[in-house]
Design goal:
The protein has 317 residues and is α/β, with parallel strands linked by helices. Helix content is 25%, strand content 22%. It contains nine helices and eleven strands.
Length: 317
């Protein structure tokens, strides 16, 4: 656990103490099925962006059960909030079986789990922005396209994804914290590259600039995440301009040719799934004109019908 903002690496908050961390089987709506296991007490989160790490735990988290992770914390100044689904309640109730809670779509701290798994378990990463995080879904991250896919195919998801991020920012500083944070861990088997929406609509880059950024990013992604890179077309922003839509459509067409060139192992047409080939998000999937509801993220996951890991064959139904 750390108080770094994932997007820029800047620490946020001070005086942060996590008085307890619990894990147990999830009954739904943030409640446990029974008394959870307490795995940490009085974990102090460093103010300057350093990480607190627990010891290795033996609680099984990959046996097909929906597991819940809960914690209590206090702070002098508020820590960073990250896009993630969960529930929030009063301090001191983190270990309760069924506390009074309200749904939240942003969770304090940057929290990650280093999981030991079988060598045969597929590990799939995604590099993207808030759309890759499943922003505005019922439970962001949990209901992201990658997480839905990984639950279906029994894979381990790794999210290199943060709101407002761009491919342009990723290539601007290959030594940046978010690029290198997991470089000492085992690499994922494959990276699903979905970044580009904010380049086209937030930065208003030209088609040639987006193509150049893609070419610059590939060796960085190959080194830092995985040499096996699969792409996805970019979905629109409903309020985008005619020029922005034109750049996105041109980039999507060009991106599809990167499989033939050998730069991508495969590509999935998320744009066709979400828009039907138009410049507008299908109303059945639309949340706010940029992001999707859970059905939209699931539709993208359902559209991944070829294996992302080697060899690329049809998934079993």
């Amino acid at each position: 656990m750390t108080n770094r903002c994932v997007r820029n690496g800047v620490p946020v908050g001070s005086g942060m103490n996590v008085s307890g961390i619990w894990v147990g089987q999830h009954a739904g709506n943030g409640a446990f099925t029974g008394t959870p296991t307490r795995i940490a007490t009085n974990a102090v989160i460093p103010n300057g962006g350093g990480a607190w790490k627990s010891g290795w735990q033996t609680t099984p988290i990959g046996d097909g059960r929906d597991m819940l992770w809960s914690f209590d914390y206090t702070s002098t100044t508020a820590p960073v909030l990250q896009v993630a689904g969960g529930w929030a309640g009063a301090v001191g109730t983190g270990g309760d079986v069924s506390p009074a809670l309200s749904t939240t779509k942003s969770v304090a701290f940057d929290i990650w789990i280093e999981a030991e798994t079988y060598s045969t378990t597929p590990v799939i990463a995604t590099l993207g922005d808030s759309l890759a995080s499943g922003a505005t879904a019922d439970q962001p991250c949990f209901d992201s396209t990658l997480s839905i896919l990984c639950r279906r195919v029994n894979a381990l998801p790794v999210h290199y994804a943060v709101s407002s991020d761009t491919l342009n920012d990723w290539i601007s500083d290959p030594l940046e914290w978010k690029v290198n944070r997991w470089q000492d861990l085992s690499k994922p088997d494959v990276c699903l590259l979905t970044m580009g929406h904010n380049d086209a609509y937030g930065l208003d880059l030209s088609l040639s600039a987006m193509q150049a950024n893609f070419a610059t990013a590939l060796p960085i992604i190959s080194e830092k995440i995985s040499p096996n890179i699969v792409g996805a077309t970019i979905t629109p922003r409903n309020a985008g301009s005619t020029d922005e839509h034109a750049v996105r459509n041109g980039y999507n067409s060009w991106l599809k040719s990167r499989v033939v060139s050998g730069e991508l192992r495969d590509i999935f047409d998320f744009n066709q799934i979400i828009t039907g080939g138009t410049n507008t998000i299908n109303v059945a999937y639309n949340s706010d004109g940029i992001h999707f509801n859970t059905a939209g993220y699931k539709a993208q996951a359902d559209g991944i019908t070829r294996r992302l890991t080697t060899p690329p064959v049809l998934y079993a139904s």
